[in-house]
Amino acid sequence: MAKSLKLVARTKKAKQILKEKGLIEVMIAVLVKIQKEITRASGTRAKKRGLKLLVKEEDILSTNWVTNPYKPIKTKSSPPYIINWVMSPPRKGGGHQNIFRFIKFLEDKGYTNRVYLYSAHDYATVRELKNGMQGSYPDTRAPIKWLNGPMKPADAVFATGWETAYPVFRDTNNSHKLYFVQDFEPYFYPVGSEYVLAENTYKFNFFGVTAGKWLSDKLQSEYGMKCASYDFGADKELYKFTNSGKRNKVFFYARPVTARRGFELGLLTLEKFHQQLPDYEILCAGWDISEYNVTFPYKNLKNMTLPELSDVYNQCAAALVISLTNMSLMPLELLAAGAIPVVTDGPNNRKVSSNSFIKYAETSPDALAAALVDVVTMKDLPKYAKQASESVNIASWDVAGEKLVRILEDELNG
Predict the structure, then answer these.
(1) Model confidence over 123-158: pLDDT tens digits?
(2) Does 47 score more than 80 pLDDT?
(3) What is the pLDDT of residue 7?
(4) What are the extents of the domains in the chain?
């Protein structure tokens, strides 16, 4: 009788819980309890989360830049020099392409270059990475290997991203330590641990070689970092003017996984543009955005190879380029093909390029859309597009390469 009464009570309690919480929540609670019992019975403990940083913990802990600062030495030998480059594994990004472009230029000047790969989480083989690099990077003779142990002695060693600055700081060779800075990388993160760890690298006392003057000015004024900058160029072999006729398309570098490219701001801008000029086709490239709710008609070009881009640019009257940190390489490449870039205004962009054919606009959908409309409705646009292409004839990467050679020789030889 007592057992029956207990069963009735438990049944009533179960019904009450089911009524209050619902079937799904009750089932989740049961599954969680079962998992805990299994874990307890097996005598094992749940695996703790590790730190998800781009840099290895031991490199952070061994980089005593406050108490044991790096003191640069001068290399007394004459050029050409031996240069070690420490970089994250290349994955077809513009930043890596730029580094290999300069490595190729230095090779042609007689320099010896070596590439050391560094990552806290990427374990791809060198062969896999080289296969992925084919067709996207300049061919170089530089050997590529993972940074496992000491680097070979060199006249100089370049850090190329904030995470690589830590192993470069720890390098025990008498190499002159430099920092190839292509963006203000703390801005890649919310204010927090990664922001601070990235920001600290500008206090390591490395000599900075920066992509454009905005970075050089920022690092010198805010961190006291000695820097020199080079100007951007455009590869005229890749990007050529081939369409002297009418253009009825607009290009957008749509990359939702890269916050500084302002994907959401771009969609809002293009929605307004489409409302005003619905006959213009909008081409989106940089990422597969088919899973996103895009409110206007567009063509999803996804990821494209570099040789494919020139033809696409030549179809476009204008292009929306949102650069919220350092300027993108894209505006000059677009101009080379006759597409007029509409770029977010700010010193981060204007200090990098003074090309008068770049159309700057405030960072609002209204202003950016209005700028796009102004460009595509311009009188004699085909003639203007040709003039824009000619404006970057002197913006050669060879000029930037020569500047890098001068910077290295001045810094290493005193």
Answers:
(1) 899 999 988 887 778 889 999 999 999 999 999 999
(2) no
(3) 43
(4) 57-233+403-413, 249-395
Lowest mean pLDDT among 181-185, 197-201, 379-383, 395-399: 395-399
57-233+403-413 has which CATH code?
Answer: 3.40.50.11090
Please provide the CATH number assigned to the domain covering 249-395. Answer: 3.40.50.2000
Question: What is the pairing mode between strands 82-87 and 227-230?
Answer: unpaired
Distance CA 224, CA 407 (A): 18
Q: Which residue has the tokens 């300049």?
A: 138
Which two three-digit tokens encode residue 349? 């962009």
CA distance 266 to 277: 16
Higher pLDDT, residue 56 or 134: 56
Question: Cα–Cα distances in Å, from 337 out to 225, 356, 376, 394?
Answer: 37, 16, 15, 14
Mean pLDDT to the nearest integer, 17-26: 58
Same fold, 57-233+403-413 and 249-395: yes
Q: State phi, psi for 381 to the nearest 5 degrees.
A: -60, -40
pLDDT over 70 at 361, yes or no: yes
Q: Is the peptide bond before 72 cis (omega within 30 degrees of 0)?
A: no
Sign of CA dihedral 400, 402, 406, 408: positive
